[in-house]
Each structure stands twice: as structure tokens, then as C-alpha cells.
Design goal:
Length: 327
């Protein structure tokens, strides 16, 4: 027999179920946005993207089932980078992963709430991304690069004992540029070498920069790692080859691609660490509480083929210390 009391109880039970269902929404698959300033289709970028995914898989994530990864590239266009960062913020991805400081800065300008994991970002404190390496504060954490210009200058002097005029090619908008130059200047004073800085911030700057370097007739060139410059390595290679100018870089992959000498961190290690940050954040950790990590593994790569083209003899000691000699 159905009574008014039974109907009221049934209605109350239905309301309770409805409220419980609303309070406990279905779990969603976390979305990770990766924001590249430069091209993500270079050999090095492609390799690092694979490393990132492999580490996430090792941590138990299955792409498409327990995690979604969305990638965007500004192809070196600063305005496009800003727009892509805002798109990620508007779509409310769970974490934004940002290789290099330029992408990290764009993401931070787009959101102050979505966690951001920067990858090999140069001088994030100087760029205003974090308060300190130990206690980053805010919504940004991740990995940072040290400056290696002093070490690179020492290596260049070992290769060219008589080198006294050194040119540096860098992007002035790179937050790590100031520290890179400062360390190079300090090393230059110790080695009694004169340092000149040549800047490129736009595609149109390269011809003038190359002309300035050519007129200076330096003994060697240091090329600072930067997404924008990295997208134009072909032009840099063509110039140093035509000028017969020895150049050293701070990404080992560049020496493998034809650069003379490169010394710097193993970039793939950064992407392993980045995946670890993503895992911790998805499990509830706050970026502000996760200290920023620095690389621990470095590579020295020497390209013997390029040295031969420049009629340079690589010192035996340098060859023995190299992690790889490209023949």
C-alpha cells in the first residue's frame, strides 16, 4: 500500500541521491599541455618528447586512457606563443609544461593558478618566474639550466690556445643571457680574452649580426642556447663554415648536427624530471612546495668532421675527455 508518507520518503531519498551524484562528479582524464616556443619537430625536440612520454608511462600513465598530452608550437613567433599560452589557460588543462624560459614566461603571464612545469629554463629567478630554487612559490616549478659560458670559453681556449678575440651570439630576450655574458666576461678576464656580444632577436637581425662578426674577425664564436637561435642553426652553420670560424655551443645535440664542439647538460634528463613533477602535481603536490632542480649530467661532444673542414687539430686531451666524437 502506497501512502503519502512513502511517497515523501521516496522523494527525499531521490533528492539525497541526486545531491550525492552532484557532489561526486565523474573523474576526468588529466590533460597536460606542452608549450614550445621553437619548433617541436627538430631531432632533439622529438627525442625529448619521446623521453617525456616514456617516463610518464614508467610512472603508470597510459596516454589516451589515464592521461592526455596536447602539444603546441609557436614556431619562434612570440605573439603566437602568447596566444597558445592563453588557449591552454582558457581550456583549463591540468598542467602546462614549458621548455625554456620564454615559453615559461608566456604561460605564467596567461595563468597564475594552473601549475606550470618549466623545463631547462635559464635563470627563472631573474625572469621573475619563481622566488627561489628551494621555495619557488606561486604556480611555477621545474628544472633550470646553469650557465656554462665560462666552461665553454675554457674549452675553446684549449682547442685554440691563441684565441684572444671571442664573439658571443645570443638572443637578448632570453632571461639567461645576462648571466651567460657575465660568466663569459669573468672567464675572459682570467684568460686575457676580449669578449664582444652580438645580439639577434628577429630573423632580420641575422644578416647584420653575421656582418658584424665577420668585420670583427674574432678567433672563435660562442653560441648561447636559445629556442629562437636554435630554429636558425642552419644559417649559423652556413655562416661559420663560410667564415671558417670555430664555434662552440651549449647543447650537445648541436655538435652531433654539425657544430664543432658542444658542452652542456643532457637535456633528456630535464624531461625525465619534468615527468616526475607532472606526476607529483597530479597526485596533489603544489608547485610552490616543489623545489626547482638543476641538471646533474653533462656531455662534451666534439665533431671531428667539422674540425677537419676547418683544418683544426683537436687536442688529444680534449678527445679523451669527450663523451662522444662525431666522425
Amino acid at each position: 500500500m502506497t501512502t503519502r508518507r512513502t511517497v515523501l520518503l521516496a522523494g527525499s531519498f531521490g533528492l539525497l541521491v541526486s545531491r550525492q551524484s552532484y557532489a561526486q562528479p565523474k573523474s576526468k582524464i588529466p590533460r597536460i599541455g606542452i608549450l614550445f616556443f621553437g619548433s617541436m619537430d627538430t631531432a632533439a625536440a622529438s627525442r625529448n618528447r619521446v623521453v617525456f612520454r616514456q617516463r610518464l608511462a614508467a610512472l603508470g600513465y597510459v596516454e589516451g586512457k589515464s592521461i592526455v598530452i596536447e602539444e603546441r608550437s609557436a614556431e619562434g613567433n612570440a605573439e603566437r606563443l602568447t596566444g597558445l599560452a592563453r588557449e591552454f589557460a582558457a581550456s583549463q588543462v591540468d598542467v602546462i609544461v614549458t621548455p625554456a624560459v620564454t615559453a615559461s614566461r608566456a604561460a605564467r603571464q596567461a595563468t597564475s593558478t594552473i601549475p606550470i612545469v618549466m623545463v631547462h629554463a635559464g635563470d627563472p629567478v631573474g625572469a621573475g618566474l619563481i622566488a627561489s630554487l628551494d621555495r619557488p612559490g606561486g604556480n611555477v616549478t621545474g628544472t633550470t639550466n646553469l650557465s656554462y659560458s665560462g666552461k665553454q670559453l675554457q674549452l675553446m681556449r684549449e682547442l685554440l690556445p691563441r684565441a684572444v678575440k671571442i664573439a658571443i651570439l645570443l638572443n637578448p630576450s632570453n632571461a639567461g643571457g645576462r648571466r651567460y655574458v657575465t660568466e663569459a666576461m669573468e672567464a675572459g678576464r682570467k684568460l686575457k680574452a676580449d669578449i664582444a656580444v652580438i645580439e639577434v632577436a628577429r630573423v632580420e637581425d641575422f644578416p647584420n649580426a653575421f656582418s658584424m662578426i665577420h668585420d670583427m674577425r674574432p678567433d672563435a664564436l660562442l653560441v648561447m642556447a636559445d629556442p629562437f637561435i636554435g630554429d636558425h642553426l642552419a644559417e649559423v652553420f652556413d655562416f661559420v663554415a663560410s667564415a671558417r670560424l670555430p664555434a662552440i655551443y651549449d647543447q650537445p645535440s648541436i655538435a652531433r648536427a654539425g657544430g664543432l664542439v658542444a658542452y652542456g647538460p643532457l637535456l633528456s634528463e630535464h624531461y625525465v624530471m619534468a615527468a616526475g613533477y607532472v606526476d607529483k602535481i597530479l597526485k596533489g603536490a603544489k608547485p610552490s612546495d616543489l623545489s626547482v632542480e638543476q641538471p646533474t649530467r653533462f656531455e662534451l661532444v666534439v665533431n671531428a668532421k667539422t674540425a677537419k673542414a676547418l683544418s683544426l687539430t683537436i687536442p688529444q686531451g680534449l678527445l679523451l675527455r669527450a663523451d662522444e666524437v662525431v666522425q
